[in-house]
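can u do me a favor
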């Protein structure tokens, strides 16, 4: 299995960590090779050189390994494409596992992008995608049938009753346009008096345009309403998930955001947009509310309804836990992945 290192910031590392927490490495003979680490360009280049030689060693020493590549856009695609070509030269079974919120835009960017992504998809033994919507996109794009939906895994936590006041609305992710953070700030600014009156507090945890948003908070006098933490390590994030009441993610592009799954696993109601795989996690009116990207009034109405109705928050949070157990439970997803490994190993 080749992916970013386990402590790299981002969704792929969260997914792989969840696989390992669910004992995937005990259910199959797993060799994990990190292909990327946070740091300088020189460090990243050095990591990939090491990855390259470790990969060759595995291909030469392990009999008929299955190669599982976690692929995103841009540099991630370039690195994995090189390894994919080598894997195919050695005639190894190869799984391409697609991540990346902007991958659809990436694969249509130029004719070269289209050619390279189609080349990979048509020659992969299996393409794993995170949602049924993405399954349809890839099958239509590459005219291939070897596409399987495998949801991201999560383990439900012990339910905490969080009907305390003030109400904490949590945003987890990179602060910026793609995640809809500017829309969220506009909503908070326009309805500042309502949020102050109802004792509603916003916590924004993530990297990205942190300094810009801290400046907005100061200029708009939102210090009483908004805290910006910057990127949070696992322990800090867990503390925020325990103390908050609602997760909000007004994104324009996503695949299957781990932040939503993590919040659902803690029994949260969710407010988000109806893009990519999010409607396969959040059932509108059941465990949260969905609105169109950029619909600031729709975001406000969802916040208003949830913040004013304690029973609704409790009911939707319970539904989130049920959906996690039924569709996204780590043991269930890892069992499906092991089954995929077994099926591909039996093919001639």
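np, heres the sequence
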């Amino acid at each position: 299995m080749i992916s970013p290192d386990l402590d790299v910031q981002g969704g792929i590392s969260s997914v792989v960590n969840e696989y390992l927490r669910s004992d995937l490495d005990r259910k199959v003979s797993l060799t994990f090779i990190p292909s990327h680490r946070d740091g300088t360009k020189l460090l990243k280049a050095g990591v990939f050189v090491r990855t390259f030689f470790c990969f060759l060693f595995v291909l030469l020493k392990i009999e008929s390994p299955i190669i599982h590549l976690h692929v995103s856009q841009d540099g991630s695609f370039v690195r994995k494409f090189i390894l994919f070509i080598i894997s195919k030269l050695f005639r190894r079974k190869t799984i391409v596992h697609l991540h990346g919120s902007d991958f659809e835009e990436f694969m249509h960017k130029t004719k070269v992008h289209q050619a390279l992504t189609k080349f990979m998809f048509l020659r992969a033994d299996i393409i794993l995608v995170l949602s049924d919507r993405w399954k349809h996109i890839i099958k239509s794009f590459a005219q291939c049938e070897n596409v399987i939906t495998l949801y991201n895994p999560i383990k439900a936590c012990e339910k905490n009753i969080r009907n305390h006041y003030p109400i904490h609305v949590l945003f987890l992710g990179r602060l910026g346009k793609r995640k809809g953070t500017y829309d969220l700030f506009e909503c908070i600014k326009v309805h500042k008096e309502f949020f102050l009156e109802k004792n509603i507090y916003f916590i924004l945890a993530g990297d990205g345009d942190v300094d810009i948003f801290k400046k907005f908070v100061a200029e708009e006098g939102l210090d009483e309403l908004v805290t910006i933490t910057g990127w949070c390590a696992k322990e800090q994030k867990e503390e925020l998930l325990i103390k908050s009441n609602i997760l909000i993610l007004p994104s324009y592009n996503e695949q299957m955001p781990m932040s939503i799954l993590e919040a659902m696993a803690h029994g949260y109601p969710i407010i988000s947009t109806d893009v990519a795989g999010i409607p396969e996690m959040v059932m509108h009116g059941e465990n949260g509310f969905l609105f169109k990207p950029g619909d600031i009034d729709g975001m406000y109405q969802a916040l208003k309804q949830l913040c004013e109705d304690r029973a609704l928050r409790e009911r939707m949070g319970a539904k989130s836990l049920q959906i996690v157990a039924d569709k996204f439970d780590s043991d269930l997803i890892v069992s499906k992945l092991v089954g995929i490994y077994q099926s591909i190993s039996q093919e001639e």
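The mean pLDDT is 91. hope that helps!!
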